[in-house]
Design a protein that fits this description.
Layout (H helix, E strand, L loop, with lengths): L1 H13 L3 H11 L3 H8 L8 H9 L1 H4 L16 H4 L3 H9 L1 H4 L5 H16 L12 H7 L6 H14 L11
Helix pairs in contact: 1-2, 4-9, 7-11, 9-10
Length: 169
C-alpha cells in the first residue's frame, strides 16, 4: 500500500498538483516527534520571537540573518542602526516590518530578540529594548527604505558610530 501511495504521490507531483501530492506523501512520513525518537534526532523548539522572525523575516533575510546580496545582511550589522534614534526608528519603519500583520508587542519582542541574537556587539551600551507602544508610534511613519538607509549610513559615519559606509553594505 505504501508503494502505491508513493507512486501516486510522485505522479501527482510530476503532474504539477503539488498540494495533493504533498498530502499523500505526508501520510508516508512519520510525524516529527516519531522521527526524532527513531532517528535520535533532537527537535529544537523556537522561542516566540524566533518563531515570529522565522515566519515573517527569514524568507528574505535567511534563518541565520544572511541571504542573497540584494537583501541586507542582519548579522553583525543591524545593531549599528540602534545607535542613533533615526536608525532605531528605521528598523520599525522598513515597509515589511511597518506593514506586517504582527502585533506591535510581538514585533517589539522580535526586534529585541533579533538585535541581541544577531548583532549584540554592535548595539549601543545604553540600548533600550523596544516597547509595543514605541512600535505603535513608529509604524505610523512611512519611508522610502533605500534612500532612508543611505541617509542613515551617512549619519552613522558622521557620528563616528561606524568606521565606513562599507560596514553596512
Amino acid at each position: 500500500m505504501k508503494a502505491i501511495c508513493s507512486a501516486i504521490a510522485m505522479s501527482m507531483l510530476a503532474a504539477g498538483t503539488q498540494l495533493h501530492a504533498q498530502q499523500y506523501a505526508m501520510e508516508l512520513v512519520p510525524p516529527p516527534d516519531e522521527h526524532a525518537k527513531t532517528h535520535s534526532t533532537a527537535v529544537r523548539h523556537l522561542s516566540r520571537p524566533a518563531t515570529t522572525y522565522a515566519a515573517n523575516c527569514a524568507g528574505c533575510h535567511g534563518h541565520s540573518g544572511r541571504s542573497v546580496v540584494e537583501i541586507p545582511t542582519l548579522v553583525n550589522r543591524i545593531g549599528y542602526f540602534a545607535r542613533i534614534s533615526e536608525g532605531r526608528a528605521y528598523l520599525v519603519q522598513v515597509p515589511n516590518v511597518a506593514m506586517s500583520a504582527v502585533r506591535d508587542e510581538d514585533l517589539a519582542e522580535m526586534l529585541n530578540w533579533l538585535l541581541n541574537a544577531y548583532s549584540a556587539a554592535q548595539l549601543p551600551s545604553d540600548f533600550r529594548p523596544y516597547t509595543g507602544a514605541e512600535v505603535t508610534e513608529l509604524r505610523k511613519v512611512r519611508i522610502i527604505p533605500w534612500s532612508r538607509r543611505k541617509e542613515l549610513i551617512q549619519a552613522l559615519v558622521a557620528a563616528g558610530q561606524i568606521p565606513s559606509p562599507e560596514s553596512l553594505e
